[in-house]
Specification:
Elements (H helix, E strand, L loop, with lengths): L10 H14 L3 H13 L5 H11 L25
Helix pairs in contact: 1-2
Length: about 80
């Protein structure tokens, strides 16, 4: 992984970043990485989404998953006349 040093950062900006990171429950460094990735990376890429899903379930042997036993469909009851 690469590193990035940002010099001459305005104190107000640093303070706001610290507060925003605290609201999100993460470090300033993690918050800055998230902000940069949102600003630089393409947002709505359906192919990337599909690839992430495929990667997540790649090790799952779906053909050998246990299937629940099927039950007959329910027959609706007759309305009272």
């Amino acid at each position: 992984m690469a590193s990035l040093t940002i010099r001459n950062l305005d104190e107000e900006l640093k303070s706001r970043l610290r507060l925003q990171a605290a609201r999100h429950g993460c470090s300033m460094e993690q918050e800055a990485r998230w902000i940069l990735s949102q600003a630089v990376m393409p947002t709505a890429n359906p192919t990337a989404f599909a690839q992430r899903i495929q990667q997540r379930f790649a090790g799952l042997d779906a053909d050998n998953l246990p299937l629940p036993e099927r039950r007959p469909a329910r027959i609706p009851s007759e309305p009272d006349a």
